Amino acid sequence: MFRSISTLLKKFLTDSSKVVISNHQDTEGNCEMTKEVVKNYTEAQEAELIAAGVIDNAKALEFAAKFGKDVRSVRAKAVRMGIYKAAEKVSKTGGKIESKEAIVADIAAIVGKNLDGLEKAPKLVLQTLRSKLSA
Known about the structure:
- Helix content is 49%, strand content 12%.
- The chain is mainly alpha-helical and 135 residues long.
- It folds into two domains: 16-87, no CATH class; 100-134, no CATH class.
- The protein has a two-stranded antiparallel ribbon.
- The chain is elongated.
């Protein structure tokens, strides 16, 4: 009995909108579950998000204030709609993030040898080595 109810609940709760589940029992004892979907965003709001093009964090802040929603909610909605672009990640110094594998590949290209295993060296050492070799 519980298994069938949990299966039904999972089926009804897969929608990303708010769901209200009602359980009705008729005079013969048959149970009937109904699902009512309550959307967080109106179709006009969704259309407005789409019309804005690619949504970044600044636009998400604007729409959150305009719609009276949380920024995380607007960002999540844009992600589900496929129109959100996350900010590019930067290092602690503000530069672009570069993997140690890419630095080792640069060093290997300069030296002209296979340098497998060098990725285990500290990143600062690899960056210094690359700058000294390319100078």
